[in-house]
Amino acid sequence: MPSRIPSRDTEKTKAELLREIQRLRKSLDAAKTPKSLVASAGPPDTLKTISVPEPFVPIFLNAQQYVYRYFASKIEDPEHSTISISGERYILVRAASMSVEFFELVRSLYKDKGEEEARAVANNLLFDLAHAIGKADAKTFHTRLGVTDPIEKLSTGPIHFSFAGWAFVKIFPESNPSPDENYYLIFDHPFSFESDAWLKQTRGARTNFPVCVMNAGYSSGWCEESFGLPLVSVEIECLARGDAQCRFIMAPPTRVEEHIARYFQARKGVTPHAHLGPALPVIPEFFQRKRMEEELRRSHEQLEQRVAERTEEVVRANQQLREEIAGRIEAQAALQRANERFEVASTAADTVIYETDLGEQRITWTRGLSEIFGYPLNEIPPGRAWWKSCIHPDDLARTESELAESLKDKPDFFLEYRFRARNGRYMQIWDKGRVVRDESGRPQRLIGAIVDISERKRLEDELRQAQKMEAIGRLAGGVAHDFNNLLTVIHGYSEMLMRDIGKPERAAQHIDEIKKGADRAAALTRQLLAFSRRQVLAPEVMDLHAVVTNMAAMLHRLLGEDIELKIAGSPQPRLVRADRGQMEQVIMNLAVNARDAMPKGGALTLETSVVNLDEDYAAGIVTVVPGSYAMLTVRDTGVGMAEEVRAHIFEPFFTTKEAGRGTGLGLATVYGIVKQSGGYIWVSSKPGQGTTFTIHLPEVAEEHAKPGNTAARETPAAIAGRETILLVEDEAPVRRLVFQILCEAGYTVRQAGHGREALEIASDSAEPIRLLITDVVMPHMNGRELADELARRFPQMKVLFISGYPGNAVEERGILEPGSHFLQKPFSSETLLRRVQEILHASRAAQV
User: Fold this and answer.
1) Which of 198, 306, 653, 824 could disulfide-link to 478, CB 3.0 to 4.6 Å?
2) Is 194 exposed, middle or buried (0-12, 13-18, 19+ CB in 10 A)?
3) pTM for the complete prediction?
């Protein structure tokens, strides 16, 4: 009978039947196991598979749901030899085979190595295997169920542990599962498969070591995967050893010994069972090995990294060395070329480069020394003595002193001296260089350049001479112009006076005009002396603000109604030492200058204040001395001036006014008075923005102020005397004038044209000479020599020097001693008589 081939429908029916049988078998198993959690309708609302502290309960309830969901899809298919959970295939392994029987197997294999060696091998194999399985199971579980939070990952581990049959977990409150080196977990396994299998297999025989090695490895592997942190777990108490529980401590490998020691330190009062040995267990060797392997691995990685870095450094160094060698070769060639170019350039620029070794006192010169000064290099001694011998004797001490000062603490030196060439001619040179110092700051070498500046110095001297002659020409032209005008007036009125000698009224008018011309000539002379700072001043302590205030009424009339005058500054005294008349002239000149700059009206402000020019301010201006100053500011709203005009405004006879308006000496006079009074003046101006003059005068302490002389002025007629006076003047017109003035005042006057004649007259005089009036500069014998000679004959005689030269000039020439009685020409008859009376009156008072 032919065989029957099953149809497709028949095959389908068999498959369905098998699935139904599988379903019925699962139901039967569930009926036989009423406590099965998997077969229940869903996860319970309370924790059934783990014991945790109350604060952890919500976290582990959530984890319990994950694990229930994972194990709910467990399928056992013996026909296909499969057990699957959530699609992952599992196998069943007998507990004793992975614990007590495995230890017996290893002991038999290592019996010649001893009990300790066998146990160490077994522990290492089981721990490493369980640790790896724990990490792998955790990773698969988290991926399947989409668990990403580290806390959730870790909390699913103990519950999965119970479902997989390893052990029930009880976590203690002192645990601190933090994802760092402070991680610490202490827990019990009340139903550990290893201790249970060990006790059953050995019929209750106790061991002397913890046996729950796989529990420790698996749990630490799961937690390590969850936190990404290296962890180990150590069983510190074990049921198989006779302890009350299987207890574990989990921590990073570097901290686990510390936590175990602290655990047993806190339980010093607990007495262990006698058969257990020491209360503090020795940590199994495989934990030490794990730590050592980890340290060895890190050391190996660090070593490899250092080797790689060192190799890279060596490669780079070799490359740099090759590049440096090539660079040095090129640099040497470039240096040679540069030296050649440098030699040519320095010679072409009339420059000699040198280097001085200060330790050996040796100087190395470039070829320029031969080209410029004519000395062959092979004939020059190397020492510094030769260099010194070539310096002009008059410049040597100064040059060495300046160089020594630079060597103390300066980085550079700048010298200028005369240097002898080979032909014997001295050349003006400029020596500039740098001081090279060692680490301690001591000078070691000098590197410098000598430049021949002889031609430049000659041109500078010629330029200065040309500028001087130009200035003198301008000054002479201005003086000649003004004096020609004055002489024209004096000469013209003198002719008219001679013609109208019989007409008293007209003659008086002519005389008045002649006197005015003479006064203007005297004023012009004073302006020139003020500009040159040679005028004799009568300084007194005065309040600068009061001087400005007292001039207000006069300034109002001077400025006119279209210019507003403002006086600013507090009434606090601004005491200065100056000539009152000259200060008034300064203010007047500046006011006139401001008026002319405001043809359409405006405002003029005069402000006084006290300022302190400190050292920082003074350091920026070479001529300023730090200290307290009274400041006068004169500010107008006029047309201002351009920079090229501002640069020349203090020059004599420089003016921007049209011909016939001003002499060009106004601001030059201001400058001279301020400088002669020890002050400073600055000007700031821009076109269209007005002009500001700022004057600083040294402030004087208030206690130095003295009340002025308020005595009534005497008329010339009241100034008279009867003493004998010797008058010596080489200018006959001046001598005749002074002779007439003194005689009309009642004095007995003897006159001479020069010193020798005066000595003869004094020898023949019957009356003692009370006063000598003498010109300072005369032929044969000057006034000082004459006075000294006559003083030996007439010890009580007083001396009044007169001169057309300013007092400063004759003092500087050594003719007059400071403090001598001196009268500046020109002078009025009143001034002459008052001065004579003052000197004679003081002499009479001294005799009394």
Assistant:
1) 653
2) buried
3) 0.36
